[in-house]
Each structure stands twice: as C-alpha cells, then as structure tokens.
Amino acid sequence: MESFLICTQLALGLLTTSLLSSPSSLAAIIDTTGNLDVLRIYSLLIMQLHQDSHLLRIQKDAVGSVDLAVDDLARKMLDRVKIMRVFDLEGVVEAMEEIGEGLEGKGEGEEMKNREQEVVVEKKSLTVPKRKTVIADSEDEDEDDEEMLFDNPAANIIPMPPLEVSKNPERSKTPERGEEGVDEGKVSFVLIDNLAHVLNPLLKKDYVHATAQSTHLLRTLTTLTRTHTLHTLLLNPAPLPLSRSPASTSTTAAPSTLTSHNQDPNIHHPAPPPQQQHSKPVPAKPPSIFGSVTNIPALSHILPRYLDLHVLVERLPKGKADAKVVYANGGGSVKKGVGMGIGIGGPRRKDGAGEMVCVVEVLNMREGSGVGAWGVFEEGGGQRA
Q1: Of 204, 201, 197, 185, which Cα lies nearest the Cα of 234?
Q2: 97 shares its domain with 209
Q3: pLDDT per position in the chain (385 positions), as tens?
Q4: What is the DSSP letter of 381?
C-alpha cells in the first residue's frame, strides 16, 4: 500500500513537471478511485515555482501578469489540469475518446464548418434580386401611372460594401483563450489511476470478455499515445501474492486416482468427465530482482505487451543495519518501520525501526538494455544511482 502511494506521488511530480515545461500544455487525469490529491498537485507546483525562478518568469509571462503571486499562479496552472472521474471501464473508454477528439481537433473542425455556413448564408442574403422588367400593356397605360425606372441602367445596381476575405481567419476569442487571443494548448500528459480498479471486478465475473475489452482499450490508448506523442502513465497496484492454504491445495488431486473402499477394483468404472479448462493464466512470479520483494503487479498478463517502459516502485531498507532491524522478525516483511512522509524515503525512526528508501526498478522496456536497472530516491528529492 505504501509503495503505491509513493508511486502516485512520483506520478504527480511528473505531471507538474509537464505543466511547467510548456505554458500552453494541458494534462488529463482519469481517476477511477476518487482518491486524487489535488492539494498535492497544488503544493508541488508552488514548491517547483519557488525553486526555479526561470520557470516562474515563463509562467508569469504566459498568463500576462508579472506581479502575480506564486500561489495564485499555481492556482491558474491547475486550470490546465482536466480531472475526469469515472466509475467503470466504459467511463475510461469515454474519457479516452474525449481526449482523442480534443487532440484530433474535431470540435474545432465543427466550429469552422459552422462559420463557413454562416458566411455562405450572409453572401446569399446580400444578393440583389432581379427587378421585374416586363413593360405594362398599352391598354393599362392610363390606369398605371408608375414611373419607369429602366431608362438608366445604373439604377439597377446597388452599391455593395467590399467583402474582405482573410486566408487565415482569426478564431473567436473565448473565455478559455483570453482577451489576448492566446491559443489554448492540447493535452500532452495523461495519467490513469488506475485501470485495475475497474478491470479486476470484470475479470472475476467474465475473464474472457473482460480480457478482450481491456485489450481493445490498451490498443486504442497505445495508438493515441504514439500518434500524438503523449506522455501516458498507468498507475497499477502490485499487491502481495495470495498464499494458498493446505486444505485448498489437498483437493487438487486428479479424480481418476480416487477410489472408494466400497468399490470392487476388478470392475471397470467409467472415467470421470474431464475438468473444465479455464483460460486464466498461471500466477506470475515476483518480477523484482530483490528477493525480499514478492509483490506482483496487477494485470501482469495484459499490460506489459503494450508498455514502452514498465517500472516497479517499492520500499526497501536503506542499508545493512536497517535491513537487520526491519527483518528481525524473520518474516521478511518490510511493513515494520515503513513511514509515510512525502514519499521519497524517510528518516530513521526514533524507535529504531530502520530507515526505508524508495526504489524504482525497471522491469521491462521496449527499446534499450535497461531491464534490471534501479535507482534509489531519498527524502527531499535526493537521487542515487
């Protein structure tokens, strides 16, 4: 649980870095749990703006207010974070479709199409209708005293105001774009927290159908990420494996080997029906290179093939002395002595429980030879190779 909280903090840190790297970029968060810490994002923005004066100046210039306070600037930057609360897998799909439509500019295309139709209607309304040019019958000349206006050809021409057509029509100013007409950026960072929360219940109910749904979803997400060069993060819990009790494992013997004492072994009995074959995969082995880490990432049979980089975030004792204290109970559990802090390790506790650090380990990567590499992050953002 603590490792997943650390992973969430690291993901929010990457999100704030994305917002600070480009003043016009947007971020989208698909939240399935309802545990999103918006205040944490706000605090990280304030901290990074205080630490980097160059980023602070760039962000102030982007909003057009040099005298804006840091906390007010961070509040404005939060407006560039789109939080999409979903409750099931269909909600995740709809949220992704909404992000895709924004990236592909479908909404903007509809707006430009409507504007073109308005221009066509306006041109038609300015067209001068033709006058009736039939000369009245001579018998009606005495009764009709209307004055004929066809002697002067110029009388049929109504002066038209010049119509200026721009090759690059300016977009209308909306409250989102501001009075300065600054173009609104597009989503460049997507955070999904987390897919297992909505997918695991479906896998338990109908494994085959849920796997097909998740496969289609991940293919769509992969295409969207690569087409628009997005930074997409999928938070995925890594719980401890479930231990099977001896009572449950003793019933797995083949029925064909079980015989009743009341049956005659010389009499042939029909073979029992074969056991139903399930398509569920064999439980995966712990992927970490550290023997004390037995956690297995959820959805390990689905996710890895679609990931460009797969990392595992865990908490481990910092040194040998800390490990002796943490594992003193002999159970190999790292729960004892785990502190909460801000997620990048923690100081040694007064009760002598030992100091824990956050370890990020590369489980798999599509390109390169970094599998097995790991790094340690300490309190205050310190990093060691």
Answers
A1: 197
A2: yes
A3: 666 788 888 899 999 999 999 888 899 999 999 999 999 999 999 999 999 999 899 999 988 888 889 999 999 999 999 999 999 999 999 999 999 999 987 655 555 555 555 555 455 554 545 555 555 555 555 555 555 544 555 544 445 444 344 444 443 333 333 334 334 578 999 999 989 999 999 999 999 999 999 999 999 999 999 999 999 999 999 888 766 544 443 333 333 333 344 445 555 555 555 554 445 556 678 889 988 888 899 998 899 999 999 999 988 888 888 888 887 755 444 443 333 322 333 444 444 567 888 899 999 999 888 899 999 876 555 444 4
A4: G
Q: Torsion angle of alpha carbons 241, 31, 193, 336, nearest 10°? A: -60
Alpha carbon distances (Å) from 68 to 10, 72, 255: 28, 7, 76
**What DSSP state is assigned to residue 305?**
G
CATH number of 84's domain: 3.40.50.300
Domain count, the chain: 2
Among 219, 237, 255, identify where a domain stops.
237
At residue 210, the 3 state secondary structure works out as helix
